[in-house]
Write a structure and sequence with these properties.
Blueprint: E1 2-9, E2 11-15, E3 20-22, E4 27-28, E5 32-36, E6 43-50, E7 58-61, E8 64-65, H1 71-82, E9 97-103, H2 113-128, H3 136-142, E10 153-157, E11 170-174, E12 182-187, H4 198-208, H5 210-232, H6 235-255, H7 265-281, E13 286-290, E14 296-301, H8 305-315, E15 318-321, E16 324-327
Parallel strand pairs: 7-9
Antiparallel strand pairs: 1-6, 2-5, 3-4, 5-10, 6-9, 7-8, 10-11, 12-14, 13-14, 15-16
The structure holds (3R)-3-hydroxy-3-methyl-5-(phosphonooxy)pentanoic acid.
Length: 337
């Protein structure tokens, strides 16, 4: 038996991907940009194995065997086998693959678990099959946002223009250590599985949200401006674009018919807290962003972390929810000076 084990962190988008123009190849309606967390933080850990005795492809997720190996995983297998390098020990075309993957955080709760999971799977398979060169396009076939977790630091998923998807790949905007003062605080509002998955949500938004069509025109300029802000370490511009983009994404969800509503009252209290805090400081010090779920990711600089954490603990006290700590909300009233 030959096995490979890898880990891959989640990424948190500051310019969101929402909408596909090709469902099979997972080609997006707009480019997107994210930061990949560190290896010790929210991450997936995956072991892949091949052996001539395996009768079928199998997968275990968080210790439970999955009924069927999904079409997306089959697409990833097919593409990886196609690009298999020279290696005598693995008969990539015929041997069946076993996958065992676990996340150290709630799965499918809007915390980019599929991004970390597919990036980790594709990276592990590429080592097993000795695949050379670009692999972010293989990760994209599993889950669009997964292509960004192939790299560390700030990463752009360039939507590309070719119909075979070969130029729809991730590119590193800055290396892992470019902005070491930047912190991401994840506030877990709920660890429950989201009610509308991103695949289904995007499909309906593409079908009937007129705002989504407008967003396609807006995103290129946003990507240009936020890339400059990241390179210049201009936190204020970075934070404002991040918050506006999160708000626009959730506006599109509400503009979708029937509407999709991922934010909860606690999420909205967090938004209010961040704006009140920024007003109080008379400067934008914290940015929020929410994916397809109620959980908040706050971007802030290290110097502000102690103050923000203590205020968050006060207004959003953690409660032990079995396996994870989720937060409760309280009315937030910060005095403006
Ligand atoms: O890659 P998916 O299908 O899980 O979609 C992710 C979509 C968002 O998380 C909402 C935005 C993004 O760019 O990560």
């Amino acid at each position: 038996m030959k096995t490979v084990t890898c880990t891959a962190p989640v990424n948190i988008a500051v310019i969101k991907y929402w909408g596909k123009k090709d469902e099979d190849l997972i080609l997006p309606t707009n480019s997107s940009l994210s930061a990949t967390l560190g290896q010790d933080e929210l991450r997936a850990k995956t072991t892949v194995a091949v052996d001539s005795s395996f009768k079928e492809d199998k997968m275990w997720l968080n210790g439970k065997e999955e009924g069927v190996v999904s079409k997306r995983i089959q697409n990833v297998f097919r593409e990886t086998r196609k690009r298999k390098g020279n290696q005598d020990s693995v008969d990539g075309l015929n041997q069946k693959i076993h996958i065992c993957s676990e996340n150290n955080f709630p799965t499918a709760a809007g915390l980019a678990s599929s991004a970390a999971g597919y990036a980790c799977l594709v990276y592990s398979l590429s080592k097993l099959f000795n695949v050379q060169g670009e692999i972010s396009d293989i990760a994209r076939l599993g889950s669009g946002s997964a292509c960004r977790s192939i790299y560390g630091g700030f990463v752009e998923w360039q939507m590309g223009s070719l119909s075979d998807g070969s130029d729809s790949i991730a590119k590193q905007v800055t290396h892992d250590h470019h902005w070491p003062e930047m912190c991401i605080l994840v506030l877990v509002v709920s660890d429950q599985k989201k009610h509308t998955g991103s695949t289904q949500g995007m499909q309906i938004s593409v079908q009937n949200s007129t705002l989504l069509q407008k967003r396609i025109e807006i995103v290129p300029n946003r990507i240009k401006n936020i890339t400059k802000a990241i390179i210049d370490k201009d936190f204020v511009t970075f934070a404002e674009i991040t918050m506006k983009d999160s708000n626009q994404f959730h506006a599109i969800c509400l503009d979708t018919y029937p509407p999709i509503s991922y934010l909860t009252d606690v999420s909205r209290q967090i938004i209010s807290f961040v704006h009140q805090f920024n007003d109080h400081c008379q400067q934008t010090k914290v940015a929020y962003t929410f994916d397809a779920g109620p959980n908040a990711c706050l971007y802030l600089l290290e110097e502000d972390l102690p103050r923000v954490v203590s205020l968050v603990n006060h207004y959003f006290p953690p409660q032990n929810n079995g396996l994870t700590l989720t937060i409760q909300g309280r009315p937030v009233t910060l005095q403006t000076p």
